[in-house]
Amino acid sequence: MPSLKPLLIPLTAITAGSAFVSYKLFNFAFKRVDYVPETSKEKQKYADQYYEYVDWFHSVPSEEWYLNADDPNKKMVATFIPAEEVAKKTVIIAHGYKGNRETMANYAKMFYDMGFNVLTPDDRGHGDSAGAYINFGWLDRLDYLKWIDRVIKHVGEDSQILLFGVSMGGATMEMLSGEHLPDQVKAIVADCGYSSIKGELTYLLKRQYHLPE
Fold this sequence. Notes:
Blueprint (H helix, E strand, L loop, with lengths): L4 H26 L10 H4 L2 H13 L3 E5 L8 E6 L7 E6 L10 H9 L3 E5 L18 H16 L4 E7 L1 H9 L8 E7 L5 H13 L4
Parallel strand pairs: 3-4, 3-5, 5-6
Antiparallel strand pairs: 1-2, 2-4
Helix pairs in contact: 3-4, 5-6
InterPro entries: AB_hydrolase_fold, DNA-binding_regulatory, Hydrolase_4
């Protein structure tokens, strides 16, 4: 009977290589990063305007809110910006993939100028919130239920809440729409959310590594 040993070495190498590639791809897609990835050259031409919004975000009077503040492994962080004049309407803004609350500064300013209170959380695995891995909105939706309750307690039972998200944040709001929401939630705006995590990962990996579907 022919020896199988000559086949074992290449098979072992292929298996190890596949495991390594899978590990790298998983980490690329799901592992948190503590920086905002560089934008495309097309978007970089708006950098000066973007940083004007960021400067405003850090200078406007605001409060830092927390969920699970006493547990560093579960702590969620958000910025609450009260309207210039006392208001009952509040927008809760969900950021995109590998972004954070600061990256939504332009939208925060837009709604602030419209007279809204603004709440911008950092999702799990993003910004100042805890979490080693990105959840693509699925577990984040549960955190947003708690943020909604926090807004109602702070602003009042007569709150009027708008849920707003872009990209992964849009998908998060779509997932959140399937939950039992309090009557204070009056509208949801989901801008360019993805239809499935599989489709989103296919797009991300193809763009980054030029992988086929």
